[in-house]
Fold each of these.
Amino acid sequence: MNSQTEIPKELIQTIHEADHVAVLTGAGISAESGVPTFREAQTGLWAKYDPQELATPQAFRRNPKLVWDWYSWRRALIHKAEPNPGHLALAEMAKIVPKLTLITQNVDGLHQRASSQDVIALHGNIMETKCFANGHLLDSWPESDDVPPHCPICNSLLRPNVVWFGENLPAYALQTAVQAAQACDLFLSIGTSALVHPAASLPLMAVENGAATVEINPQETPLTRWMDFVLRGTAGELLPKLLTQLR
Ligand code: BV8
């Protein structure tokens, strides 16, 4: 494991030789787009709340308006955000390597807006809305003063189409991600603290499958010790560098 902010030649060589690259991203890749990471202290009105306490069905049942307002605040932030050079570099890398599977824990849709294809969104999409009782996915709903609004189909409360703590991940997305982690030649873990499961187990599946593994993160994480390459820096700075040396 060599921890450095320059890109080792062996890593470039490894990427050139890889038939299948799998990538797992976390909130860190969106930090340079101005989207606060999941564990950074929340700002303003939300400073006193722990995201992990709010992103649960229990919190929603207990105080649906509070949770709905939190997501409205985050949606407004994300609406103003743009994909950054890190997102864009991954979209370009997919055109260079034979096969790239992009798996994200992020719910901000920035990989999709950076034109990455077939993004595996393990935790859903904050910009999508469904109802709490039956999961009716809705593009629109009747104007109402109710906060949260009600589902026009079954009248239950509306919520963001994200996976909350204690909820199962979408089965097909998780299965596809596990298959990629077990089959890839190279696994990049980018901008994740590797604390949330089952996503955090994907890099370790890649280690078990004998893939070469890379961590891109300014900080150490529980994954660091298992990684073949550790690039200590930000996604927005290191991924464009990696792409330039790949070309
Ligand atoms: C599940 C959507 C089966 C919502 C998210 C008790 C009861 C129930 C479950 C559990 C339990 N105990 C444990 C669990 C499992 C639980 C879990 O993992 N808990 C942990 C925290 C202990 N998991 C679940 O509940 C999952 N479901 O297991 O179902 C089940 C069902 C019932 C009962 C048991 C099991 C569901 C997990 C999904 C939760 N939803 N998001 C929303 O967003 O509102 S997860 C949330 O955290 C975000 O999606 C985020 O992406 C994710 C992970 O965080 P990170 O992405 O890593 O972000 P973080 O801020 O932590 O770190 C940022 C990193 O970036 C840092 O390392 C930083 O250094 C780095 N960085 C910063 N700047 C940059 C950078 N890197 C690069 N460049 C930069 N510029």
Note: The first strand starts at residue 2 and ends at 4.
Amino acid sequence: MTKGAEKISLSSPVSCLSGIGDAKAKAFARLGIFTLRDLIFHIPRAYEDRSSVSLLQNVADGEKATFLLTVATVPTSVRLKRNLTVTKLRAFDDSASVELTYFNQDFLKKVFAVGDTYRFTGKVERKGKRILMTNPQYEPYMPDLPLPDYIPVYRLTEGLSAAALQKACAQALAACLPQLEDFLPEEIRRRNTLPTLQSALTALHSPSGLADIRASARRLAFDEFFLFALRMQMSKKRVVTEKALPILSADRGAFLSRLPYELTGAQSRSIDEIEADMRSGTPMGRILIGDVGSGKTVCAMYAVYLALASRHQAAVMAPTEILASQHYAEMKPFFEAMGFRVALLLGATSQREKREIYEGLQKTGEGRIDLVIGTHALLSEKTVFSDLALTVTDEQHRFGVLQRAALRQKAPRSHLLVMSATPIPRTLALALYGDLSMSTIDELPKGRQRVDTFVVDSSFDARLVAFMDKLTAEGGQVYVVCPAIAEEPEEAEIPLSDLVTEKEGAPLLPLVAAEKKAEELSLALPHLQVGLLHGKMKSAEKEAVMGAFARGEVQILVSTTVVEVGINVPNACLMLIENAERFGLSQLHQLRGRVGRGSRKSYCVLRSDAKGVTAKGRLETMRTVYDGFRVAEEDLKMRGPGDFFTQAGSDDFRQSGGLAFRFASLCQDETLIFAAAEEAKRLLSGDTALFTDKHAALSAELARYAADSAAVIS
Ligand code: ADP
Ligand code: MG
């Protein structure tokens, strides 16, 4: 099976498997798979449902289906060119017969024998009375050996076929499963009726049925919440013992007088809470949750002001360069006018500039940088502060607890403020952010207009184009969000998260792809500039398109959900969301918050051809509910918490919210989260150090989890 005689372990590189050379190993690396452990945790993103067998007669042209067919003729091969052979045969079921064609697989002559039955899956072509299939997949069928109903579909990359991945995965499972220790204590597993890790992984890669898939996904989701909760609770224990840097009272009036508006009640309450924490003598650990546009930034700026006014330093970290640059544009003039030095540190910042910033941050006297704003570039070992008293992280769900910990390690006595624009139900927030105090901004600034929301189907397309034309003619700008980048081959597959959350059985509608949509719109509106933005583009390209949109040079921005995170273009007045049925409600709400930020009357249009009652009900919620916290509650009621962690159409794994949570979207109900948090607490109360022999496997897993999550952002 595997190469050589060296001992295979979970940490062995994938290249130790037979059939994996340098090129394949590189392809695996592109998927984030380096070791056998990575490979066995690379669980299918979807399954193809082959449980229902169709009759040839009933399947229309272009449809993909599964059939039980008996071979009728001896296969014949013809060589058409030097590198092209065609193998043909006929097969039939009770309703009709079909011509099967395979390219460059003349070994099939020896595979298919007349009279044998196979399960074929593929796309049907109809030409008059003839029925054809090209390169359908086949599995030998034996009446007493049932074939699996669900076939795994993996995330793939160029140079790595499904078959190659499957083969490697099977080898890895065979070699490693016996050595895989289940880190979850037996009694926790039993109390929560979870399968062992071994059986969960086996089942996900080759499920015997739907129940199997669900139980296994539940186990992985539980693990993640459990580890998350453990770390949260452990980090809190550590933090409270440190004394905070002293924060002096500051002149709030002077701060407020520099703002062009009055604070809302919720903002005032939040900065009261922040100030009380920062002056309490112990390090603050607070999360500020508020809808998009609720004005969190100014609250963060007040915290920064408190730190700077006490002659300390502050750092503000955002998950993307775009967001960091926006904060910089807003905060630099504000604080420089007060006499403080402000710097921007991005991954893209030149080496020379970076060196200057590192030096400026380490200074104690003249020329010290007081406030640095940046991306996770701030976490580099080279950023050393002389006197860091506060870190603010924006949109924290993109970072996760470990990045916060990493920043805090740079200054253990510093205060921490986390901003999140994902209003989540309070119960969930308490379970997830157990270690943080919470401020909520549940009130929008006065005079803020409501973004009128409409639900339409494709019969409105012509009117939508006319509407875009009208809005842009008036000087407005438009976002169009699509769930996919490029058109994908039609697949009869069901995303894993849909399988486990028991979503409506309605067939998935074809995805509108951003590339195609952008093309269509530039043809339909040739006098307008249409931009395209997605996660597979290089960072510089993204910045260029976003910049052009921000400057108004591009009027219509077609994108995947990369626009979701806090981008601010006040001139944008229409948010059109394609395949709206694919998105979580909270995510739709986030997207809607991208418009209505300026003085223009703004609209959100949810385009969906979904006919199901559930899908329609969800979209109807969006049309009638405008408060993010209530949207979240509704979401939780309707679909379970998986939605908060699912990012429909996020095409960039690192951005997918799957930072701390890779499997959380597989969670069906919130009780799993509470159970995991509860078990963590119970365990810690008995074994605070977690380092007794009994929990050796668990503490090893915890260390690995920490390293994994940290690696994601590097
Ligand atoms: P978010 O909570 O999404 O980060 P921001 O802090 O970016 O929201 O604020 C959104 C907009 O609202 C900004 O343009 C900001 O200047 C403005 N704003 C914030 N607070 C108020 C207020 N109390 N009154 C009026 N405008 C406000
Ligand atoms: Mg913001």
Note: The chain is about 40% helix and 20% strand.
